[in-house]
Structure formats: structure tokens, C-alpha cells
Specification:
The protein is an alpha+beta fold. It has eleven helices and 13 strands. A five-stranded mixed sheet has the order 8-10-11-13-12. The chain has a four-stranded antiparallel sheet with strand order 4-3-6-5. The protein has a two-stranded antiparallel sheet with strand order 1-2.
């Protein structure tokens, strides 16, 4: 089975964040380049528009004389603009045959030419039936210093802004995505509470994204089928136990009418063992059908005291003793008192069974919500510490005084209460079972009435 912590199982948010960081890096590189290209394109378009406007202005200054000749009447401001001394703008006006009619550089014989440093625009006009082409150009080496600075320093002054903007966008996306998957987190929390004793829980469907809804619906339907299966199994166990109790009682009564003898004693012992197994099966079925209220609390010391009172005659009949030790104050824990009583009863009964004759079993209640049951028996082999909690497991298959169900009931109650159960061997001999429960919120220890 794959390890859930291996790199294969990355979280969805981690994947999205990684891909988003890659996207941010790519965009942070290419976006300034695109903006730079757009800026240059916009400047070039503005330049062409300006040159076209100047060409239109020159066309309006062309006049036709009475003898058919054309003249270009420029005001002083435009003459200075196109003067060779200024040297920034040039123009020439040609006829349809390409002959130069007017030019700002006619004297030097240098018509407006195309080069990397010169850029311009041209317009065509028909004046007095003659087609003229008016071209205006600008020497880009004399362009405005402000425009040159904007273009040259764009990356240094503007381009870096894209990186923090994209990082802010990344953080915003993460927050939005976390809010979007919040219903899924809630559903996973509900799923973690599902167990053999809580088969009624279903995944919530409120605010679940439409893409995930089919999966949630399928899981809930699977849980419905599992709950039906558990219900049938529990009902069968309970019915079988109920049906066996009556024949065993009748069989016992008939055996007891027999005369005294070894056969009668052996039969009664076997019937007692069978009755014990049936009672434990019925107990397991009843515990499986109990639903623990998360807000329910119980006094652990009071439960232990009640168990000691009910099981003490059994210990005394076997020339053994049982004592309640630990705190005298109430220890309020989260749990159902009936289920707790059955678990601690089974622990105490198991300890009495294996403790030596003439010794005692100690049941100690602690303020931290734990209870320890110690015996003076042979202890438990290290390899069997987990096996003893399995149903129908016994170290000695030849023994007929039990079916290996008592400690499995203890483990089931612990699991239902989100508690832990552990076993260890004592240095002086014997075994110690420890059950640890969760303390109830706001629980304050106080002496239990009538207890010492």
C-alpha cells in the first residue's frame, strides 16, 4: 500500500500554488515585454498620426494661381519647423510623375528618404485635377527626450510592478480557493467520525461544488448500504443470543435435577460457559446498537465504584479481593456511563480470573481521566498485547471458561469513546490495563457523595 505521505499524494492546494507560481514567473517575464511592445506600437501610431496631421496641414497651404502654377504658402511658424537649422522635420510634395514640387531640403537636394532614423507619413490629394503626394517625416534621433526616457527606462521603472501585482493575485487566489474547498474540508471532518458505532453519519451536501456532488452522493449511498449490512449483522447476533438464552436456561434446570456426580458438575460448568458466551454476544450486539452522544458525560469514579460493588461477591467467592483506589473526587469524562460500566466490568472480571488466590485486584481512578486495573496473575506475553483484544482469541485454546470476548468489548468501548486501552506487565508480576478517556470540558473534581 502506498504511503499517504509520499510525494505522490500532494495536496490539491499545493499543486495549484505550484502551477500558479510557474504561471506568475512566466507572466512576470513576458508581460513587461508585451507591454514594452505595446508602448512602442502606441508611440509609433501617435507619431504616424502626428505626421499625417502635418501632411494635411501642408496640403491646405497649397494654392493654384491663375496661370495654373502651384504655390505653397507656409506661415513663419511652419517655415521654422521645417527649416534646416531645426533639422527635425522634413517634407516634400510630388506630382503623379514623382517630380518634386516643393521640399524643405530642396536647396541641398536631399529629398525625404526612408531610414531607421527617419519615419513619417504621406497623404494624397487632388488639387485642380492634379494628384499630389505630400510626405512628412521626422528625424527620430531628435525625438522628444521625455518619450526616449519613457521607452528606455520602462523595465526599470514600470516593469517590476507586474511581479508584486501577480503575487497579490496569487495570494488572493489561494484565499478564494480555500474558501471554495471549505465544504470539502467539512465533509472530510464528518467522514472521520464514521465508524462501526456511527454508521448513521452522512457526508453533508450543503455548498458542495457541483463537480464534487456525484462523488459525495455515491459515498452516501455506499454508507447507506454499509449501514444496512451492519444492521442485519447486529440484529442477527442479538436474535441468536436471545434465542439461545432460553434453551440454555431449560437445559440448566434439567441438569440440576440430576443426581450429584462428576457428570452433573461438568455439564453445569459447560452450561455456565455457554451462558457466559451468549451473554457477551448479546452485550456486543447491544453496544453496537448504542449511539454515543458527543455531549454526554459520566463520572468515571462513580462508574468504577458501581462496578466494584457488583463484582466484589464474585471475587470473594474465589478467595480474592478487589479494591477501589485513586482520587476521591468525581472525574467527569466524555462518555456513556452504561458502556463505561460494561468495559470496566470486563476488565475487572478478567483480572479476577487470572489473579492468584489470596491476592487482590486494584482499580485505580486518576484525575486525568484514566483508570488502571492491576492483577497479581502471570502477566501477558509481549507478543500477545494486541492479540488479546481480538474477538474469540485465547492464548490457551484448551480452556473452556471463556471465549475471548471480554477484552474485545473493552476495545470496542474505547474506540467508541475515542479513548485508548493499553496493557503492560508489572515489575513485581501481574498485568496492568489502562483506559484513558477524554475529560469533559470545564470538569472540576469534587468528592463523590457517599464515597471514600
Amino acid at each position: 500500500m502506498s504511503n499517504p505521505r509520499s510525494p505522490t499524494f500532494k495536496s490539491l492546494i499545493s499543486r495549484i500554488v505550484f502551477l500558479h507560481i510557474v504561471a506568475v514567473a512566466v507572466v512576470a517575464i513576458f508581460l513587461p515585454l508585451v507591454l514594452f511592445w505595446l508602448l512602442n506600437s502606441e508611440i509609433a501610431q501617435l507619431h504616424r498620426d502626428a505626421m499625417g496631421a502635418q501632411a494635411e496641414a501642408l496640403a491646405e497651404r497649397i494654392a493654384v494661381q491663375a496661370d495654373g502654377t502651384m504655390t505653397l504658402n507656409l506661415p513663419e511658424s511652419l517655415k521654422d519647423l521645417y527649416s534646416e537649422a531645426y533639422g527635425r522635420y522634413q517634407y516634400d510634395i510630388r506630382d503623379a510623375d514623382g517630380r518634386v514640387l516643393f521640399s524643405s531640403h530642396r536647396k541641398s537636394g536631399t529629398p525625404v528618404t526612408r531610414s531607421e532614423a527617419i519615419s513619417g507619413a504621406s497623404v494624397s490629394r487632388t488639387i485642380d485635377g492634379r494628384t499630389l503626394r505630400i510626405r512628412v517625416a521626422e528625424d527620430l534621433s531628435h525625438r522628444d527626450v521625455i518619450i526616449d526616457d519613457i521607452v528606455a527606462n520602462f523595465f526599470r521603472r514600470v516593469g517590476w510592478i507586474t511581479i508584486p501585482i501577480l503575487l497579490v493575485l496569487l495570494a488572493t487566489d489561494i484565499i478564494i480557493f480555500r474558501r471554495a474547498i471549505a465544504p470539502l474540508v467539512k465533509a472530510s471532518e464528518e467522514a472521520s467520525n464514521i465508524g462501526p458505532a456511527r454508521t448513521h453519519i452522512r457526508l453533508p451536501t450543503e455548498q458542495i461544488p457541483r463537480e464534487i456532488m456525484p462523488l459525495v452522493t455515491a459515498v452516501n449511498q455506499a454508507l447507506d448500504r454499509l449501514e444496512d449490512g451492519f444492521r442485519v449483522q447486529r440484529q442477527f447476533t442479538a436474535d441468536a443470543a436471545h434465542q439461545l438464552r432460553t434453551p440454555l436456561a431449560i437445559l440448566r434446570s434439567r441438569v440440576e435435577t440430576l443426581g450429584d456426580g462428576a457428570a452433573r458438575t461438568a455439564l453445569l460448568t459447560d452450561i455456565e460457559g455457554m451462558s457466559r458466551i451468549v451473554a457477551q454476544l448479546l452485550e456486543i450486539a447491544e453496544l453496537d446498537m448504542l449511539v454515543l452522544d458527543p455531549g454526554e458525560t459520566a463520572d468515571l469514579r462513580a462508574v468504577c465504584a458501581e462496578v466494584i460493588g457488583s463484582i466484589a461477591p464474585l471475587a470473594l467467592a474465589q478467595h480474592k479481593d478487589i479494591a477501589l483506589r485513586g482520587t476521591d473526587a468525581a472525574v467527569n469524562i466524555r462518555g456513556n456511563s452504561e458502556m463505561l460500566q460494561r468495559a470496566i466490568f470486563n476488565l475487572a472480571e478478567n483480572a479476577i480470573k487470572f489473579t492468584a488466590r489470596g491476592t487482590a485486584v486494584d482499580v485505580e481512578v486518576c484525575d486525568d481521566g484514566s483508570v488502571r486495573v492491576r492483577d497479581c496473575g502471570p502477566g501477558i506475553a509481549e507478543a500477545e498485547h494486541e492479540l488479546i483484544f481480538q474477538r474469540f482469541w485465547r492464548a490457551d485454546r484448551q480452556r473452556s471458561d471463556g471465549a475471548g470476548l471480554g477484552l474485545s468489548i473493552v476495545r470496542g468501548v474505547a474506540d467508541d469513546h475515542a479513548a485508548t486501552v493499553a496493557v503492560e506487565n508489572l515489575p513485581d508480576g501481574g498485568a496492568q490495563f489502562t483506559l484513558r478517556f477524554r475529560l469533559a470540558e470545564g470538569a472540576v473534581g469534587s468528592p463523590s457523595p457517599g464515597q471514600s
